[in-house]
Amino acid sequence: MSKAWVEDLERAVYIAEKDVRIYFLKGPNLIFGLLLPVSLFLAFSIGRTVDLAFAVPGLVAIASFFGAGAIQAIALPLERRTGTFNTLLTAPISLFAIVLGKALAGFFYGAILSLAYTAIMLPFSPLPNLPLFFVGILVSSFLFSAFGLFLSAPFRDIPEAMPPATVVRIALVFLCGVFIPLASAPTFLQAVAYLLPLTYSVDALRQAMGGPINVEMFLFNLGVQLLFSVLLLVAATKVLERSIK
Amino acid sequence: MNNIETAIKVQDLTKRYLNILAVDHVSFEVYRGAFFGFLGPNGAGKTTTINMLTGVTKATSGTASILGYDLAKEPVKAKTHIGVVPDTQSVYDEMTAWKNTIFSAKLHGVPNDKRESRAEELLRTVGLFDRRNDRVSTFSRGMKKRLMVAVALVHEPDILFLDEPTTGLDVQSARQVRGLMRELNKSGTTIFLTTHYLEEADLCCQLIAIIAEGKILIEDTPEKLKISSQAEQVVEVSFDHASDAADKLKHLNNVRDVVSAGDKFRLYVEDPSEVLPLVFDFAKENNLKVVSINTLKPTLEDAFVKLTGMRPEIMSIEKEQTKLNRG
């Protein structure tokens, strides 16, 4: 790895550290990251017979999905409005590394929330394969942070960024088999679901919780998520690049 | 590096936003160690130029280099050498002054063992060391600006860009920032300053470029700029009582314009010797007593007005209004 890459990576970590310090306890993050997933979970669970081996991975996945995404819907547009994003643009760091730094902050937030929900739900759910479940959470959180960045990259203020991001996320929850098994959905919707990143996160976590593990399928789900992550980071960088032209 | 004597080199730099040509084929050079002033009315293209030179936005065409590094080809290397104090906020309200300075040090690659000593030195220099553990949200505008200067200097940049650094500051804070800029320049830092305070530019800058409607109108030393405006001279007069004399004075022969300046009136004329007797006649006719009357040396303001056709006080009002609207 060249010296420039190492320096870029190091500075990306500093940006993540700064974002963690500033945004982790902001009100909207707590609402979207903590309350929305549990509200959706309860709305689908109360009054029904719930298979926890099916539902808990869904809850953990959307905790990561909303948590990692919430910080991105706030941090980037807010910094662009106040002008502090320019502080990063004038620093000796590549735009991709800035995006990576922001993605890392969302990754930590999503992972912490997912692990918290896992810890809360473990006494009531089947015991997952903990190392694989942990890996699944980490990969999902990074993916959802990159996805959140991609959604917020075109916007220069929170009120512009929040509504589309929320609508897209809620739509994905319904399309990706979080609460309803995809097998029971029409073929067309199943095809759409496998074009969307959340599906692979939920699948990987269910595999890690649902008994005998198909390692190849698990790795395939992780691989697709990592591929989506890279594509979304590159796309977010391109969108930001266009906006500074 | 191509030529280390040139700190900033700009050739045909152009920026177009849809149908608006914000900067129109601008070219200039700033030598190492210079204090360069970039003056112009609101919307002239000053901030857009700074934004292109610091990586905040990209040029539509043309080239710009920092110490020989082309900003389009080697932006990271170019940005290693610059510090920026923008006209927007560059520090984080949610963090303390100390954390902001340390973050900037990390971001600019200041070695771990030097970060704290450098932060302490700079916060002491800008008079914020005692408030280092307070969140920036509790700071006044002047304190924030001084912190922004400290943050921009943490990596000891060769070139410091300052975009309207004293706008909206109280007299004492503005004086502190100006003093700091001069000290930095004395110690070898190249300064690129945009300002609409012409006295500030006159006081600090060795070279000034005046930009209007995206084009550089003239580039010269402050003294040469003043001489260039000498075709029009100023007679300054004050009466014992005459708050509404400006309109009447405008009607005197050979007076092109009259501007009120406190209790004085500035008459823009071609030949003061022709106008002086007329002013005394005017005083007599209107039962006024002349308290003082002087012919003034041309100022940078005169040069600016002549070149841009815009009065600096109008520009100041516009700038303040923009800042207020921005919140």
Strand order of the largest sheet of chain B: 6-7-8-3-9-10
Provide the low-confidence segments of chain A as ranges. none
Radius of gyration of chain A: 18 Å
The computed structural class of chain B is alpha/beta
Number of strands of chain A: 0
Q: What CATH first level of the largest domain in chain B would be assigned?
A: Alpha Beta
Write the CATH fold name of the largest domain in chain B: Rossmann fold
The proportion of residues in beta strands of chain A is: under 5%
Order of helices and strands of chain A: HHHHHHHHHH
Describe the protein.
- The complex is a heterodimer of chains A (245) and B (327).
- By secondary structure, chain A is mostly helical.
- Chain A contains 10 helices and no strands.
- Chain A has one domain (3-243).
- Chain A has helices at 3-23, 27-45, 52-82, 85-89, 95-121, 130-152, 158-175, 187-193, 197-209, 215-243.
- The relative contact order of chain A is 0.15.
- The mean pLDDT of chain A is 90.
- With 327 residues, chain B is an alpha/beta fold.
- Chain B folds into 2 domains: 6-223, P-loop containing nucleotide triphosphate hydrolases (Rossmann fold, 3-Layer(aba) Sandwich); 233-297, Alpha-Beta Plaits (2-Layer Sandwich).
- Helix content of chain B is 38%, strand content 28%.
- In chain B, a hairpin with a 2-residue loop joins β1 (6-17) and β2.
- In chain B, α4 runs antiparallel to α5 (141-153).
- Chains A and B meet through α1 and α4 of A and α2 and α3 of B.
List the helices and strands and how they pair.
The complex is a heterodimer of chains A (245) and B (327).
Chain A: H1 3-23, H2 27-45, H3 52-82, H4 85-89, H5 95-121, H6 130-152, H7 158-175, H8 187-193, H9 197-209, H10 215-243
Helix pairs in contact in A: 1-5, 2-3, 3-5, 3-6, 3-7, 3-9, 5-6, 5-10, 6-9, 6-10, 9-10
Chain B: E1 6-17, E2 20-31, E3 35-39, H1 46-54, E4 61-66, E5 69-70, H2 75-79, E6 82-85, H3 97-107, H4 112-125, H5 141-153, E7 159-163, H6 171-186, E8 190-195, H7 198-204, E9 207-212, E10 215-220, H8 222-228, E11 233-239, H9 245-249, E12 255-261, E13 264-269, H10 272-285, E14 290-296, H11 300-308, H12 312-326
Parallel strand pairs in B: 3-8, 3-9, 6-7, 7-8
Antiparallel strand pairs in B: 1-2, 1-4, 4-5, 9-10, 11-13, 11-14, 12-13
